[in-house]
Amino acid sequence: MLGLAGQELRELREEINALTVRRTRRYITTTSPAVGGRATFPHIEQQPVRYRLTPQMRSLFIDVLDAAADPDVMCAPELVEEMERLRGAGPRFAPLTLAAYVPQCYDLHEPEPPTWVAPLLPLIRSLLLKRIESSPAAFAETARHMADRTRQALADLAEGVVRITVSAKRRRQLRELVRQWLASSPDEAQEETAEQEELRDFLSSLLGGTVIPGSLGGLPKECLRRADDFDVPALREALEHDLTVLDHLATEADAARHEDPKATAFLCLMDTLEAKTLVFSEARDTTTDLGRRIRDHLTRHPQHPLQDRFANLGSKERPREEETNRVLAGFCPETAADLPLRIGDVRTKDRYDLLLTTDMLSEGVNLQQARAVVNYDLPWNPMRITQRLGRVDRIGSPHDMVHCYTFLPDEVLDVWLGLIDRLRAKTATAARLVGVSTALFPDAPVETIDYATLVERLEKPHVPAYTAPPLDELQRMWLHRAQAVPTLRHRIEHLTRWAGAVHPDPADAPSVVYCFHVIRSPGAARVPAFCRVYGGARQGATSLDPDRCLREIDLDPTDWIEGRDDTPVPVTSEQRHLVLTLLGRARKEVAAAFGIPESEAERHVRLIAWMLRPSTLTPARSA
Questions:
Q1: Which residues are CB-contacts of 452 (< 8 A; sequence separation ≥ 6)?
Q2: Helix or strand holding residue 562 (H, E)
Q3: Which of 78, 420, 576, 602 has its CA at 20 to 30 Å from residue 135's CA atom?
Q4: Distance between CA atoms of 228 and 418, rounded to whole angstroms?
Q5: How many CA atoms, within 13 angstroms, populate the side-chain half-sphere of residue 471?
Q6: DSSP states of 230-245
């Protein structure tokens, strides 16, 4: 099919359309590149908007980076160097312990914390980083909420109890267990399953303390255990530290929000807009604060072209469905409004040119009358950027070009990107270890992308994104073809550890992608892990994102499988030295992500294979 000409593809499309529902942008633009002389989709012009932090906001941002830092993550040399450049030698605050959320870590009778703690803590730290990037208003609300929870934990401790939250999932399991018990006859002899035994023990521990009733079938939302079961001095010290830091950060954020440099930069951009514009933020506290600032700005400038043409669907109270539909119809009456049902019905008037909203509108709405999208902040999942833009970047857009503005902090961006991407990788790694099968971050994308890659694409908007099929699908196809060749099948089955190769296509900077098996304890399942480490000018920069690592070294092995390119070329001594030099850094990064002490990294993190992507400054060779 890929060898068909454009005309043949267009003819085949009519047959395919009758059988398929989803068609990709690439497929549509290939088979129907133009409609009436106009491109099927508008051209997208990405325009990053850098804003400079005020001294007060800069100080707040740095304090949040220190407070939200994971000690294992923040020790990365490049992050340490960047933070020292920003604020000097030492932080004003030690990292938050988040003890109010994980008091089980201080349980005297349980030497190991629950398995869910590993993914939870970096998730909360990521939330703090996202809130400060969104706005000081959003961060202030989050910090106050966390301070209130910490204050309650200290009050409980003073009463001699520790509050343990019971998740909704566990309450559903408990309700099912109770249902089974009630349905069973008292004299029935039934063998208890391991899960039932675990839940029975958990229920017994709940009933041993003070149970706080919940709404889910009458089962408890929380329980209060005796403080004697916990390391009270250590728990109190952690809670007091967190409360001091959170109260200070909330106060600092409240002071900084009065001169928010991002909001000021947005108002300047707003004054230059000449077409319908859709503005996204992931935090409702941010859209509430920004909406107030926009209205105040319009009040001060009564002749502004957006006067009475602004609507906010991100106000504090989530709007009802009827209100949302009314605003959308007024913003894009040609595509978002209900069509008149009878002759004489009046079409909805065009009322708004600027619409502010949360990500509630990033899917399922046709707003192609708009010609600009503003990402006031980066969404919780980086790929949400594409979904936001998709409300405007649609078939039938009346515009040849759509502008996409994305706001980015200037000075602190690099360290923010490095820290949040490492926390996301640590969360994903921990989730795999505890068997979490669903995405921890909302709206998991088809193509995984981290924040550093997202910003790189925004900075270089004219470089087309890689749109190959999913790697696992290609790998299965290639493996099937290779196994059909007896000599290749034998070589694959007898592949030795430490097998490596040099990628035939050089890159701007040399890098090595390593594949490891991580074995936490004897007899435990092996967990695959990838790490990319740069050499050259970007020496030491790393990524633990599996998709990003694999895409960096992706290539088509067709020639090798078909025997047209089967002669290995020896690795040069310089290339071998680079692979061995960067190996220690890669193993250390993987060990830290899995909570393995550096002294035990070599025993628990075992190298399986590697691939070197050489620099354009050195000749490419393969082995």
A1: 417, 418, 421, 543
A2: none
A3: 78
A4: 40
A5: 13
A6: B-HHHHHHHHHHHHHH
DSSP-assigned beta bridge partners for residue 513? 532, 611
Cα–Cα distances in angstroms (integers) from residue 523 to residues 287, 491, 592, 608, in the given order: 51, 28, 21, 18
Residue type (1 letter), 432:
R
Report CA 280 to chain centroid distance, whole Å. Answer: 17
Task: Kindly give, in sequence order, each residue whose CB lies less than 8 Å from that of residue 128, ignoring residues fewer than 6 positions away.
Answer: 64, 67, 68, 96, 139, 142, 143
Cα Rg of the chain, angstroms: 28
End-to-end CA distance of the chain: 33
DSSP designation for 615? B
Residues of the chain scoring pLDDT < 50:
1-2, 18, 20-22, 181-192, 196, 200, 203-218, 341, 433-448, 463-473, 618-623
The sign of the dihedral angle between the CA atoms of 167, 172, 178, 181 is negative
Helix boundaries (H) for 192-320: 194-207, 232-256, 261-270, 284-300
Eight-class DSSP state of 359? G
Alpha-carbon distance of 621 to 614, in angstroms, equals 8
φ, ψ of residue 381 to 5 degrees: the values are -110, 125
Those residues whose C-beta lies under 8 Å from the C-beta of residue 227, and which sit 6 or more positions away, are 157, 160, 161, 162
Yes or no: say if 531 and 586 are a contact pair by the CB < 8 Å rule: yes
Q: What residues form DSSP beta bridges with 340?
A: none
Nearest alpha carbon to residue 421 among 70, 25, 32, 134: 70
Q: Are residues 30 and 467 in contact, defined by beta-carbon separation less than 8 angstroms?
A: no
Answer left, alpha or beta for residue 527, where phi above 0 means left and psi between -120 and 50 means alpha.
beta
Residues with Cβ within 8 Å of residue 284, at least 6 apart in sequence: 314, 315, 316, 318, 358
What does the longest C-alpha to C-alpha distance in the chain come to?
Answer: 83
Burial of 354 (0-12, 13-18, 19+ CB in 10 A): buried
Instruction: Compute, in degrees rounded to 10, the torsion defined by CA atoms 166, 169, 174, 176.
Output: 160
Per-residue pLDDT, 139: 93
Exposed / middle / buried, residue 461 (Cβ in 10 Å: 0-12, 13-18, 19+): middle
β 511-518/354-357 pair status: unpaired
Query: What's the rounded Cα separation, in Å, for the pair 317 and 41?
Result: 35
Q: Amino acid identity, residue 250?
A: A
Q: Is 497 exposed, middle or buried (0-12, 13-18, 19+ CB in 10 A)?
A: exposed
CA–CA distances in Å: residue 96 to residues 68, 165, 249: 6, 20, 12
For the chain, how are helix, strand and coil distributed in percent, rounded to 5? 45, 15, 40
Tokens representing residue 488 in the block: 């290749």
Burial class (CB in 10 A: 0-12, 13-18, 19+), 482: middle
Cβ atoms of 535 and 510 closer than 8 Å: yes
Whole-model pTM above 0.70?
no
What pLDDT was estimated at residue 318? 84
Q: Which of 145, 80, 156, 163 is nearest to 414 (CA)?
A: 80
